[in-house]
Amino acid sequence: MGFDNPYTNAPPIGRNPLHGILPRKATAEQVIRAMESDVNPFNKQPHKPQYKRLLERRKELPVFGQMSEFLKMFTQNQIVVVVGETGSGKTTQIPQLVCYSDLPHTKGQIVACTQPRRVAAMSVAERVANEMDVSLGKEVGYSIRFEDMNEPGATFLKYMTDHTLLREAMNDPDLKQYSTIILDEAHERTLATDLLMAFLKDLAQRRSDLKLVVMSATLDAHKFQKYLSIAGPSKPAPLFKIHGRTHPVEVFYTQEPEPDYIEAAIRTVLMIHRAEGPGDILLFLTGEEEIEDACRRIKFEADDLANQDPQSIGPLVCIPLYSSLPPQQQQRIFDPAPPSRAPSGPPGRKVVVSTNIAETSLTIDGIVYVVDPGLSQVKVYNPRIRFESLLVSPISKASAQQRAGRAGRTRPGKCFRLYMQKDFETELEEQTHPEILRTNLANAVLELAKLGVKDLIHFDYVDAPAPESLMRALELLNYLAALDDEGNLTPLGAMMADFPLDSQMAKMLIVSPEFNCSDEILTIVAMLSVPSVWRRLPNQQKEADVAKALLTIPDGDHLTLLNVYNSYISNKHDRNWCWNNYLGARALQEAENVRAQLQRTMERYDIELVTTQDERKLWQSIRKALVCGFFMQVAHKEGEKGGYLTVKDNQVVSLHPSCGLDSSPEWVIFNEFILTTKPYIRTVTEVRPEWLLEFAPNYFDLSTFPAGETKRALQSVLKKRTLKAVDGTGTGSVSTRSNKHDAEPKKKPKKQRSRAQRSGGG
DNA sequence: GAGCACTGC
Predict the structure, then answer these.
(1) Could you tell me which residue ranges the Helicase ATP-binding domain spans (predicted)?
(2) Do A168 and A211 share a structural domain?
(3) For a FRET experiment, which of A357, A592, A639, A685 has its CA 20 to 30 Å from that of A248?
C-alpha cells in the first residue's frame, strides 16, 4: 500500500482509526493501533485524557498479551469457548475485542454480552463505557428488567441479563440485530444461560453470520466445547484460555470429621484471630438464623479472649451477610476492620459470616482467610409432589474452589476446610447441579415453546432434565391450556409466555377480566411476585402480628395482600406508614414496579383493567379467578384437627401460622408449599368446591380422580349441583356466564375500550 | 404456631 506505516501508532488526523480493518479479520496490530489513536474510532471524538491512563492499566491484564491469539481464533471460528479466572479481564476486554473485529456499528448491529445478575450487567457496562471513552447508554449500554439503557441505532455493545436476552429471543427468534453473542459466567449454569446456550447453538446453525462466544471459569470448559461442536462431532469448539491473576491460597483440611460444623467454624475463626497474621476472615454458613447465632457466639467468645489477654488479642467485629438484609446493612461488609485498641496493640480484624451470596454475587476485598464447612442450602425440586424445597447439602468441588479463591483476591491467603481431604476428593461432586436439574420447569418449558422448540422432550439440552420434571411441566401447561394435547403452544400460551410471571399467575391474570376483577388480580400477582412484605423482627414479633391483624381480610391471604397494597397506595407510598405497620417499603415499591410492567403487557394484548363496585361480590370474583390459575394447588380439610391433604398428590399439610383465615375452611387454594419443621401451605384463600368443578373441569374430572375422601366430597357436590339444576332451585352461582351479569362492571376511566369486543358483548 | 440459599423476567 505504501500509505500506511504500520509502525506509527496514530493515523493522520481525520483518518478513521479503524481504516484497513476488514470485518472479522482484525489483527492485533490493527486493533492496538486503533486503541492508541488520538481519535475515538467509534464516535470520532478526540479521547479524553483519562482514556490513555485506563488503556495503560488494561494493557497489564493477561488477556491483552493474548490478543493476537484470540483474534485469530475468533476470525477462524463461528463458536469459541473462553475460560479465564476472576481477574483475567475477560468480562470487560473480550467484548471490546469482539467489537473491534465485528465493527457492529458499521452495520447497525450489536454485540451482546450476558450476565446472570443485574448489578453485574450495569456495573460492567459502566466500566466498559469508560474504558472505550463513550457515554453509557449510547454506544455502550445495558438492558435489565425495568431498565433499558440503550439508544437504538447508536448502541453497538450491550450488556444484559441472560433472561433479558432470552425474552428478546422469544419475540425475535433470529436475534437479527446481534452480530455476536457472548454468554458470560456460563459455568454458573443458570436456567436462562442453559436455555440460551441450547437455543443459540441451534440458531448458529441457521444463521452462519452469527458468532457465539461462551465464557466460563476453567472447570467445565470441555463440556461446553463438546456440546458446541457444530462443525462436526469430532470437532469440539476451540478453547481460548486466559491466564488468571489471583494470589495462591493454601488449603487446610481437618484430620477428623467434625461432628458439629458450627462449633468447629467458630473455633476455627477464633484460632485464626489468635494465631494468624492480619487479614479479614470470611466464614460460609447456610442461612440467616445460623449466621445471626454464629455472629453472637463469635462476638461473645472474642470479647472474652480479648479480656483475658488484651496485650496480644486485637478487637474483632463480626458482620452477618445474607440477601434479605437491607442494602444498608449489607454495605457494612465493606467497612474497614476495627483499629487496634492501643497505638502499638494488635490490629483489629473483621469477620464476615455469609451465605453463598459471598461466593459469586458479592466480592469483599481484604479477605485473607476463608473458613468453609462445605455446606450450603440448595433448592431441590420434587416432581412427585410438584414442589421445591430447600435442603442443606454438601457443596461441589467447584464451589469449594470458588470459596477458597475468595481468600486470594488481595494477597496470598489461607482456606480452612472443615472436612477431610479424603472427603473432598471422593465425596464431593465435581460441579454444582445446574439449575435446570433442580427446579420446576413450567416456565422454562413455556419459554422454550415460545422460542419455537417443537419437541421439548428430545430437545438438545446441555444437561437434560429428569423426564418426570418435564412431564410435570407439560402436564401443568396442558391443564392451563397453554399447550394443547400434542404439546403445541396455544395462542393463550403464547400470550402467557409474554408475562414475566409463573404460568399459573399469568393464566389467572389473563382470564381475570371475565370475572370483572383484573384490576385486583393484577395487584395480587404483583404482590405474589415480590419478596414478602411482612417485616417480623425478632424482638417485635407481637407488635408486627398486631399490625398485620389490622390489615387482614379473613376470607383469604390473597385478599389481604390486595388490601395491603391498596392501603400502601392510599397512604401515598409513605415509608413511615410502612415502618409503623411493620411492612417492607422496598418490597411494596417493587410490587408497584412489577404491577406497572404487567399492566403494560396487558395493554399490548388489550386485556382490560376492570373492577366491581360491590366489595363482597368483588372478593368472591377474585377467589373464582384464583381457581382458574391455581386449581392444581388445592387442599381439602381432613379430620378435625385442622389438617389438610393436597388434592390428588395427597400430601399432609397444615396451614402456615402466618395464615390469616379466621377458621379452617373445607377447601383452600394456596400459593406456596414449604417444608420447614413440617409441611405447610402458605398464602391461603378459601374456595368453594363447585368452582373447582366448574373452572377446572379437566383437572377435576372425577372419572380419573384417585379414590379417597376428596373424591367423595367432590362427588357429593356434583350430585347436589345436578339435583339443583334439575329441580330449578339452583342459585346460578355456578354458571360461568352468570357472574358476568350479576356484577356491574366499573371500568377505569381511561380504559373504555374493547371489553365488549373481547367477550362478545358479555 | 413459625421463618427462605441465590438469581432472573
Answers:
(1) 71-237
(2) yes
(3) A357
pLDDT at res. A280: 95
**Residue numbers in A 639-678, CB below 7 Å of strand B:** 654, 656-658, 672, 674, 676-677
Q: Nearest residue to B6, CA vs C1'?
A: A357
Rounded mean pLDDT, A158-165: 96
* The three cell numbers locating residue A153: 441505532
- Closest nucleotide (C1' vs CA) to A529 is B9
- DSSP letters for A159-220: EEEHHHHHHHHHH-TT-TTEEEEEE-SGGG--HHHHHHHHHHHHHHHH-TT-EEEEEE-GGG
- Are A579 and A694 contained in the same domain? no
Chain B positions under 7 Å from a protein CB? 1-9
**A33 CA, B7 C1': separation in Å?**
40
**Do residues A393 and A294 lie in contact, with contact meaning Cβ atoms separated by under 8 Å?**
no
Contacts of A708 (CB under 8 A, 6+ apart): A645, A650
Q: For residue A598, name the pLDDT band (cuts at 50, 70, 90).
A: very high
A617 shares a domain with A494: yes
- pLDDT at position A762, please? 24
Nucleotide nearest to A501 (CA to C1'): B9
Kindly tell me if the per-residue pLDDT of A161 is higher than 80.
yes
Q: Closest nucleotide to A654's CA, by C1' atom?
A: B1
Which pLDDT does position A648 carry in this prediction?
Answer: 86
- Within this chain, do residues A458 and A509 fall inside the same structural domain, yes or no? yes
Q: Could you tell me if A50 and A178 lie in one domain?
A: yes
Q: Single out the residue in A214, A241, A268 at which a domain terminates.
A: A241
Asked whether residue A601, judged by its CB, lies under 7 Å from any atom of the DNA or RNA strand B, the reply is no
The string of pLDDT tens digits covering residues A633-672 is: 999 998 777 789 999 888 899 999 889 998 889 999 999 9
pLDDT of residue A383: 83
Range of the domain at A545: 441-629
Whether the Cβ atoms of residue A595 and residue A524 lie closer than 8 Å to each other: no
Closest residue, by C-alpha, to the C1' of B9:
A500
Q: For strand B, is any atom closer than 7 Å to the CB of A344?
A: no
Q: Which nucleotide is nearest to A167 (CA to C1')?
A: B9
- Per the CB < 8 A criterion, the answer to whether A625 and A503 are in contact is no
CA A91/CA A99 separation, integer angstroms: 13
Nucleotide nearest to A392 (CA to C1'): B5
Question: Per mean pLDDT, which range of A123-127, A140-144, A621-625, A635-639 is the poorest?
Answer: A635-639
Is the overall model pTM greater than 0.85, yes or no?
yes
Answer for A286: CB within 7 Å of strand B.
yes
Which residue, A224, A92, A227, A110, is CA-closest to A164?
A: A110
Measured from the CB, is A375 under 7 Å from any atom of strand B? no
Looking at the DSSP bridge assignments, the partners of residue A115 are A161
Average pLDDT value over all residues in chain A: 88
Q: Is the CB of A528 under 7 A from strand B?
A: no
How confident is the model at residue A19, as a pLDDT? 79
